[in-house]
Specification:
alpha/beta, Rossmann fold, 13 strands
Length: 365
């Protein structure tokens, strides 16, 4: 398990590396206004390809900490994919007034419950854009990175009726933290609620009997910012929610990476999980070849697989299909990264160290 000192150092380095990324970033996005009361005080950005057809799908994209919509779009390539395949893209955007490091406040009950704060603002944006532009409400999808991935889990839990599918990249399960100290612990994979508690929290998030959104979970096996233990719990939480708790995962290989799938009784994939070998904290990109996407940068990592394209294909938005390189077989137990220890600086006091970590993670102003 990573020590607090290691987490402090890592989060600080990531913050410094990405601090300049949002400066002078050219944007393909337009501003969204008049979408509702906006209780979470978020900003909305959109991308609509030329000649968007009526009934087109909508993709909602949530950026990570220290990023904004334009930075994440450039890195992930969502708007360029929209040009090729004819769907609209909505980018809710955090403000520094809400969070100094531009993280969505996934750990705050006032922003991560149905009808409240940032979650309610995102839902308002979705409904407004869908109605105004004549999009298909049955083909609305959401995905996000890190804090955006954790907020994606919030939206899927609290507003499941709005989404046909979601993708969580390097994120956390719904309802694991209340306040900043717990958020930091959960990022490190510590103090997690029991599986029964996780199931109860998601069951109580919204009065919804189905159908359920499909789910795609992506995590780097070497992520030292958000422990890969979170990916295990996301899958468990959603298997329990949609009634796949007794299903056996099947594994195959896609673009050289391990993928595990869980199917419903009709054989459709309800949950898929990608473990990106050796990758740290960020969105997996494949910037070479016919399926190239995105631009590498802070939290946008070359991994030889285009998560943007694969996620879109899993939702039926592109003509491409995942290339399976090995026949289905029972999923072996996930390998854990070796434990490494790092000393916690004590000269400044534990309280000061914790405050530094919380600020670096965007969890304290």
């Amino acid at each position: 398990m990573r020590s607090l000192g290691y987490t402090v150092a890592r989060l600080g380095a990531l913050r410094r590396a990405s601090k300049a990324a949002i400066v002078n970033t050219a944007s393909r996005l337009t501003d969204l206004s008049g979408f509702g009361s906006n209780p979470g005080a978020l900003v909305g950005r959109c991308y609509f390809p030329d000649h968007l057809e009526p009934g087109a799908p909508l993709i909602v994209v949530l950026h990570g900490c220290t990023q904004n919509a334009a930075v994440y779009d450039r890195g992930s390539g969502w708007s360029k994919l929209a040009d090729r395949h004819g769907f609209a893209v909505l980018f809710p955007e955090q403000t520094r007034a809400n969070n100094a490091n531009l993280c969505f406040n996934w750990y705050s009950a006032s922003d991560s419950r149905r009808g409240r704060g940032e979650a309610a603002s995102i839902a308002q944006m979705v409904r407004h854009v869908t109605a105004k532009h004549g999009l298909d409400p049955a083909r609305t999808y959401i995905n996000g990175l890190s804090a955006g991935g954790a907020m994606t889990a919030v939206m899927l839990a609290c507003y499941p009726e709005l989404f046909a599918g979601g993708a969580i990249i390097a994120g956390l399960p719904f309802g694991v933290a209340e306040g900043v100290p717990e958020a930091l612990e959960r990022m490190r994979g510590q103090g997690m609620p029991s599986r029964a508690a996780l199931a109860s929290r998601i069951a109580n998030a919204a009065d919804h009997g189905g159908p359920w959104p499909t789910l795609s979970v992506w995590h780097g096996t070497a992520d030292s910012t958000v422990s890969i233990a979170n990916a295990d719990l996301i899958v468990d939480q959603w298997r329990d929610r949609i009634g796949l708790s007794d299903a056996q995962g099947r594994t195959d290989t896609v673009d050289g990476q391990r993928r595990t799938t869980w199917r419903d009784s009709a054989g459709g994939v309800m949950i898929e999980r990608y473990d990106i070998a050796g990758m740290g904290h960020g969105t997996p990109l494949g910037t070479r070849g016919d399926a190239a996407c995105g631009q590498p940068g802070a939290h946008m990592l070359e991994a030889g697989i285009c998560s943007t394209g694969r996620i879109a294909a899993s939702w039926g938005l592109t003509k491409g299909a995942a290339r399976v390189e090995a026949s289905h077989r029972p999923a072996p137990a996930a390998k854990r990264a070796p434990r490494r220890r790092a000393a916690v600086p004590v000269a400044r006091g534990v309280g000061a160290v914790i405050e530094d970590a919380l600020r670096a993670a965007g969890l304290m102003r």
